[in-house]
Hints:
By secondary structure, this protein is an alpha/beta fold. Helix content is 35%, strand content 25%. Strands 9-8-7-10-11-14-12-13 form an eight-stranded parallel beta sheet. It has a six-stranded mixed beta sheet with strand order 1-6-5-4-3-2. The longest helix has 20 residues, at 103-122. The chain is globular, with a radius of gyration of 19 Å. The two termini are 26 Å apart.
Amino acid sequence: MSTPPVPYLDGGAVTRALAPAAAVEALAQVLRDGLDPETCPPRSAVPVPAGELLLMPAAAGGWAGVKIAGVAPGNTALGLPRITGSYLLLDGATLRPRALLDGAALTALRTPAVSALAVRHLTSGDGPLRVVVFGSGPQAYGHVDALLAVRKLASVTVVARDPRRAEGLAAYARGIGVPEGRTGTAGEVAEADLVVCCTTAREPLFDGRRVAPGTVVVAVGSHEPDARETDTALVRRSVVWVEARSAALREAGDLLIPEAEGAIGPGHLTGTLADLVRGPALPAPGPAPRLFKSVGMAWQDLAVAVAVHRAATG
């Protein structure tokens, strides 16, 4: 019996198939349906000459899938994407392939959606947010889009190493309806309602003592135990939320480094994304910042890949 060809959804098809708001809802729904992120298989990292290959398998709700992502730091100097890869979506009962998706586009959609889902629950009220974004790559653009899907934004201040790229993101924010989009400096976290870190930095991006009480900080750039975007001062001060305790205590340098320094203990984690989605609403902001640390998990790729596939095929 011949096997029908597996449809391929390139980056453009992935982006057209699913809006950020729908990606956020896909993640929320699988958590409401009872998926337990703590049982998700861990990410495997395989060193290769150009960087590393990341293998991320998952199965849930009648579906299975695996993402093979390449992280090639040298690509940036060549004008190529730093993140490459593909996602193979499988029927859960038979493991027959159903679709192949562009992995970089899927990651650029699901990571901001995870952040936006957390922000929807961690921010209070419906007033517009003053946002500081660290980074100017695809994840930074994706986060602006996703945040607009869940909250009104008063301003987006971009902090990035390349002034031209920073201004490009600021102009993009203005072009999609943010009243104020501009470049800025790390010190402006003191005036932010929301700080988003989506960089390749391995050292803290700003002084955590300057973050105001009640401010939400989202850090997504690192999934390595020895790399971080936030400093010990911020982590010590903050109420901390993660995607899953198991993944955070395995991969989140933002938390593992302060723990190794003796600044926090394992009990410093307040809760998980599933707790936020399923649990009662949080109380009004108190005297502590709220930190959401994301490392990226395979169940998120699967949830968004299924939603993309359904939207693309009707």
